[in-house]
C-alpha cells in the first residue's frame, strides 16, 4: 500500500499541545494506528499548519499560553467544519461546554489513555465520513420545533436555532424516537457511533440542547431525565 493510500484511508491529524511529552506520546500512538501526524506547540503554530495542510482532524489542548485552544477552535470554525477533539483538564467543565458550543466534536480529559485517544480519533473520523441517513420526508417536527434535515437547519417557532453538528444529530434522533428512554451509553452509540467513550459527553450535549429548545432549561418539558436510565423525548405537539 502506498503512502497516499494509507493517508486517504486513515487520515491526517494535527496534534496541538504545549507539552512536548504529550505531543510525542500522542503522535506515536496515532502513527502506530496508521495516521499521518503533524504537531504544533501553540495556537499560532496550529493555525498556520491548519491553513497550510488542512488536516482531517485536530487534537487540540484547551489550556495553552498565548492563543488558547478555545480561540483556536473558534477561528478554525470560521472557515471549516473539521472534526476537533479537545484535551481538557479534569474538572474543567466550563471549558468542555465552551468547546462544544464552538462546535468541537468531542473532548478527552487529562490525564488520559493515549490508546483510548487514538481510538476516539479513529471513531470521530469514521463518524464524520459516514453519509447521514435522512427520513424520506426530509423534515422532523414537534409543535413549533422543526428540523429540516437536508439543509441541517432547526427552527423553533420560526426562529432558527444555533445548533452545533452534534446537537442537531442528537435532536434529530430524539424527534425520530419520541417517548422512548435511552441510556447515555445508548445515545453515545446511536448518535455518536461510539461503543466506548466518556458518557458525560452526552450529558453536556443534552444540557446545551435544553438551553436552546426548552423555555425553562432547568425544568425541561421536551428532553426529560429518566432517573436511573437516561433521557427521553416527550413531544409537546402544540
Automatic annotation (TrEMBL):
GO terms, molecular function: phosphorelay response regulator activity; transcription cis-regulatory region binding
DNA-binding region: 137-235
Keywords on record: DNA-binding, Phosphoprotein, Transcription, Transcription regulation, Two-component regulatory system
Residue ranges of domain OmpR/PhoB-type in the record: 137-235
A Pfam family annotated for this UniProt entry: Response_reg
SMART domains in alphabetical order: REC, Trans_reg_C
GO CC, one annotated term: protein-DNA complex
A GO biological process held by the record: regulation of DNA-templated transcription
CDD domains: REC_OmpR, trans_reg_C
Sequence ranges assigned to domain Response regulatory in this UniProt record: 12-125
Modification 4-aspartylphosphate occurs at: 61
Protein name per UniProt: DNA-binding response regulator
Species of origin: Amycolatopsis taiwanensis
